[in-house]
Amino acid sequence: MATKITISDIKADIGGFVGHSSMHPDIMELANDELKKAKGNKIVDFFVARVGDDLHLIMTHNKGVDSPQIHGLAWEILEKCSQLAEQLKLYGAGQDLLVEAFSGNVRGMGPGVAEMEITERRSEPIVVFMADKTSPGCWNYPLYKIFADPFNSPGLVIDPKMSKGFIFRVYAPRENRYIDLQTPEESYILLGFLGAPNDYIVDHVRPKDTDEPCAVASTSKLALIAGRYVGKDDPVLIVRCQSGLPAVGEVTEPFANPWIVPGWMRGSHFGPIMPVPMRLANPVRFDGPPRVVALGFQLADGMLGTPSDLFDDPAFDDARDQATRIANILRRHGPFEPHRLPLEEMEYTTMPGLMEKLAGRWHESEKQQLTPEQLKEATGLEMD
User: How far apart are CA 221 and CA 154, in angstroms?
Assistant: First the structure.
């Protein structure tokens, strides 16, 4: 029986350098040193990455998903990095660590998690996408393009293994429930949910003939955990590629056309997501625009090796230019929608505090809105 391997990315914002824009090199070095101690013992291999001010601990191991050992290791390292961030007086030090004591699993404790347990194939290319200044629903658009849109992924048409379609698990975080939808049969129904990324999030995607996922996303929403705004969720996505799954080029193709995501400054604005190499993942302009990094790993007997920085490619220069132009247009709106998020999406920002402060200054208006019954009585018109 083939050996299973688990790929885990456990990430957190543990302090920005400077502001929310980047990560102090000492933090990266500390995380690397701590994971090096665990290599060959708790974990098989690792890579420390970052996007903006988010630290990513990418690990392979044979302990399965939601392992207390692996989650405990990650929590311990994130705590040590947070303590160093405090010493360096970094902004927002430890902001994603919402509780004081580890309870066996970091899910629901603040850090973001994406994990998949797989049987390693003869060749196992994997892409880890890391986003900053946005929320988990940002992956809805590319996941649909990758696994359900033949205009993006021609393998859905010409590869018999892919043409069977995929199963999307859609998670509703406010209601804590999920639904499985199949493509291509239920593609239109799926779009109905994925088009509302604030309320419905792709948890994972899997082929119809196996229970092993081919894409797994982090779905935690910090505001729902903390009950207040503590920063954006800055999600992660892990995608397997090739050999009956979308090719690496199909997996990265959606990012050639930047789409609009919520987040950006103070988590309260819409902005274009910009694909960048890790060296350019420094969202400074208005704390943005939102960034995404793609690291490609060629898994070999559980070893990650050195990643390929996939967006370090001039073919994505136009996407970066488009994102800048979109950012310019949105920034001209200032505090007005559609640049600022609608009020119902700002319930966990500073707006509730402002409304509470001004509560005593609101007065009933004499301009009463007529009900349908009152309107019918006044005009004689029947309203639908």
Answer: 33
